[in-house]
Design goal:
8 strands, alpha+beta, 110 residues, five-stranded antiparallel β-sheet
Length: 110
């Protein structure tokens, strides 16, 4: 518990994220296309909240690009959760994300 990088803190943060975002708990599920078959991206939506999730299903770094045409229109993206803070995401009309092995990114679509 004393180590912020511990597995305990990781799961604690995930549970807090789930409890504070109804779309993760109850939302509809929709796959979102990306350019990398090693990364799964999907959208969870409930009422006015939409959450975008990207999962690296491989043991090596992966880069993926998510086209905004598959996402809700005119909604900025806010990063809610990631498995590391050393790799940054950029937004150039498209979401460009580098995910570490088995990495996760969770964005709030406002």
């Amino acid at each position: 518990k004393n180590d912020p990088a511990s597995l305990w803190h990781f799961y604690h943060d995930l549970i807090r994220l789930r409890k504070s975002n109804p779309a993760i708990r109850y939302g509809n599920f929709k796959f979102i296309e990306n350019n990398n078959d090693q990364v799964v991206t999907f959208l969870r939506s409930e009422n006015d909240q939409e959450i975008l999730i990207a999962l690296n299903l491989s043991g090596i770094d992966q880069v993926t690009i998510i086209d905004p045409h598959d996402l809700p229109a005119d909604r900025p993206v806010k990063l809610l959760f990631c498995t590391t803070h050393s790799i940054s995401d950029t937004l150039d009309g498209k979401i460009n994300s580098e995910l570490e092995p088995w990495g996760v990114r969770v964005w709030l679509m406002r």
